[in-house]
Amino acid sequence: MTVANISVSETPLVLYTLRRADDALILGHRLSEWCGHAPMLEEDMALANTGLDLLGQARELYSYAAKVEGRDNDEDKFAYLRDVRQYRNLLLLEQPNGDFARTMVRQFFYATFADLYWRAMMRSSDLTLAAIAAKSEKESAYHVRHSSEWIVRLGDGTEESHHRTQSAIDELWAFIGEMFAVDDSERGLIDAGIAVDPVALRPQWLKTVSSVVSEATLALPKSDWMQQGGRSGRHSEHLGHLLSELQSMQRTFPGATW
Amino acid sequence: MYTQALNTSDGDERHVEDAERATQFQARIDADERIEPNDWMPAAYRKTLTRQISQHAHSEIVGMLPEGNWITRAPSLRRKAALLAKVQDECGHGLYLYAAAETLGSSREELVDAMLAGKAKYSSIFNYPTLTWADIGTIGWLVDGAAIMNQIPLCRCSYGPYARAMIRVCKEESFHQRQGFEIMLTLCRGTAEQKAMAQDALNRWWWPVLMMFGPPDQVSQHSDTSTKWKIKRFSNDELRQKFVDATVPQAQFLGLTFPDPGMKQNANGNWEYSAIDWEEFKQVLSGNGPCNRDRLAARRKAHDDGAWVREAAMAYAGKRKQRAALQAAE
Amino acid sequence: MATPNIPLWEVFIRSRNGLAHKHVGSLHATDATLALQAARDIYTRRGEGLSIWVVPSNAITASDPSEKGMMFEPAESKIYRHPTFYDVPDEVGHM
């Protein structure tokens, strides 16, 4: 017997909330893969803390999505019983950890974005989203600090670390455009003062990222071709493998309580 | 104070054994005084503690692996967060313990290198595999339960830094066993398949958990001096018995049975268990457990893969110092 | 191959406003900024802190335990430094 995927009534607000929740869950999951394997014990602690912050954000957002949707879905059904085509996270966040440089660049790109995003969302006319944003912003502010300190050390460390970090930037750059994309569903929420307009955040994001990258003696790529698709469920091949692991228990033992 | 630098002066006269100092030292121990890093101590006390604390630290770090094996597969988001936080705690505990060992004069790097080279031991229990989600419940319930039995007396150990680290560890660990028991309780109240999963896990972990307390008292090689120095306050068999007596009613509550048909309660109320297979224990300790090779390989890989990161951070710190010196000179 | 040593730091935490910073443990970090971050990630996970100090372990100068007679015993006989040394009749009340 297999478990059917849940169906989700993706009204604009449900979809909007799920997108943010999926971002947090998928990145939190990726960071949790580091647990027990980090370059030093101190960083093992730090990566787990960041992962736990993100898991916490995901759970609050899923619970809110469930409430808005008003059916019998909940945080675990959203996480464990949607397949790859129903996931709405950014492609950047499902990319494999790679080496520590790749993980830190991914973290730095996303945290810098998320911090601006949450700060803007604190002014949302949706009070639940504003409250989640206020809590999450304090977490993401630290994630920016932590990851940017590492970008500087890795970029300006040894020849090897410089090379690895530059490669990570080059390889992940194509995924940043998606952070600033808006579709019709989100446009309406932005106009209603509920959602954040990410386009407005782009100059500040670029300014912060450029200044850290240049302090790190690294460079941003010139290329401006950007991959998209995560927000509408067209993912990279990596997400399916992540989900098959994440969901293995729920898929093997349908309906059980854990 | 964990001042490593003050304790590395090898060759100073402190290391020369001195009967009078040894007598004074023992008198301090007998008076329940705490020994601190810079105090004079017999070389054997230093050696015993360095070995015990570093083994304890290695156990925490290697112990992250069997449970870490389930973080990405935890069956609910609540369980996932709890497990990640718990395994992270083990990392923190390893870190506190390495710091305590460092006050005795060995660096964390030396201690870790010895472990990676297979020259230092860690708890035998972590060489068993976690095959199902029930193993995560069982580890929390039994392995952490056994660890607590061992660790609570260590909070009063004669060596100050070790005792202080253990106080912090015990305080943080208080949620670990409850977390495990809650998983077991949920399984035992769940479907028949879940309950069977719980029973299977208990069957596989019970004997290895009893072995965690170490060899029986009559063959334990370190016990006598450790007791004299108040590093150890209860014998292996005493702690093992205490653990069994505490665990039996918990298993009864869960409706699980022990893989030991000969188990019975004696007139004193203690639960008597059958003979432990010490040959298995010996084999696991000497490297032949089901996961010894995998565990060491995983730790070596993390260490090797992280080398360039540590080098980069060191190089950056060096550059920054140089730049600051140049600026100051200008 | 021997692994190069990463410097050791001592961590002090102020748990509540009004209290002094207290030594809580140690960690390894290559520089002060990373040490401070690591202290936050390791020693304040359960809301233990409002303020953190990190100090390189080798910057601490400690008294020598073998000199504790000379260092600390002379103070023990100066009982006139304590309020209980002085007799004040009960009827005077708390002073």
Automatic annotation (TrEMBL), chain A:
One of its GO terms (biological process) is phenylacetate catabolic process. One of its GO terms (cellular component) is cytosol. It comes from the Bacteria. Pfam families: PaaA_PaaC. InterPro entries: Aromatic_CoA_ox/epox, Ferritin-like, Ferritin-like_SF, PaaA_PaaC, PaaC. This is Phenylacetic acid degradation protein. It comes from Bradyrhizobium jicamae.
Automatic annotation (TrEMBL), chain B:
GO terms for biological process: phenylacetate catabolic process. InterPro entries: Aromatic_CoA_ox/epox, Ferritin-like, Ferritin-like_SF, PaaA, PaaA_PaaC. One of its GO terms (molecular function) is phenylacetyl-CoA 1,2-epoxidase activity. Signal peptide: none annotated. Transmembrane segments: none annotated. It comes from the Bacteria. One of its GO terms (cellular component) is cytosol. Pfam families: PaaA_PaaC. SUPFAM superfamilies: Ferritin-like (SSF47240). NCBIfam families: PA_CoA_Oxy1 (TIGR02156). This is Phenylacetate-CoA oxygenase. It comes from Bradyrhizobium jicamae.
TrEMBL record, chain C:
InterPro entries: PaaB, PaaB_sf. Pfam families: PaaB. This is Phenylacetate-CoA oxygenase. It comes from Bradyrhizobium jicamae. The gene is paaB.
